[in-house]
Amino acid sequence: MKSVLGKLIEREFGRSRYYIYREKLQKRESMDIFFDIYESLRRQSPDALNESMKGLLESVQNSIRISRNFAGTTIAILAAALVLLCLGLSRGVLLGSLAVLGCGYAYKLAEYIRNRYCDRDVKIVLIYKIALFHLMEESCLQKKERKVY
């Protein structure tokens, strides 16, 4: 299971480059990552850059949503477990239901941990964001003709 941000980088640049970026981060070669991302993005049109920015914002919002909703998910799982315990179900049905709840919670917990503590993916996304902002600003400045007085 990958973090939302890791999936974004894979979608934008491919799985092999994602793993190369992770290795470069371990070697503290973040400028190499920046230049590679910058060169990839430089070939794109302004509309494609806008779509990339939209995808970046959606992924970041998704990652934040997962973290924010985890407390509510935990409370809902606990409430469902209490309701199941109070219903007086037969032992087999109760254990099966609690097992299903446990599996669902284990998945949500893994998703939360993966998205909350994905430091490498966050660093790669920040480099991606900087390159994207730089190129968008550059393309915006090229559209405007500035007169020097």
Question: How would you portray this structure in words?
Answer:
The chain has 149 residues and is mainly α. It is built from six helices and no strands. α1 crosses α6. The relative contact order is 0.16.
Q: What labels would you give this structure?
A:
149 residues; mainly alpha; 6 helices; 85% helix
Q: Give me the oligomer status.
A: single chain
Rounded mean pLDDT is 92
Q: How are helices and strands ordered from N to C?
A: HHHHHH
Total beta-strand segments: 0
Q: What is the straight-line distance between the termini?
A: 56 Å
Stretches where pLDDT is under 50 for at least 5 consecutive residues are none
Helix/sheet category:
mainly alpha
Strand content: under 5%
Radius of gyration: 22 Å
Give the overall shape: elongated
Count of alpha/pi helices:
6
Instruction: Describe the main β-sheet briefly.
Output: none
Give the helix proportion (percent range): over 70%
What topology does this entry show?
Elements: H1 4-13, H2 15-26, H3 30-42, H4 46-86, H5 91-116, H6 119-143
Would you summarize the structure shown here?
By secondary structure, the protein is an all-alpha fold. 85% of the residues lie in helices and 0% in strands. The chain has helices at 4-13, 15-26, 30-42, 46-86, 91-116, 119-143.
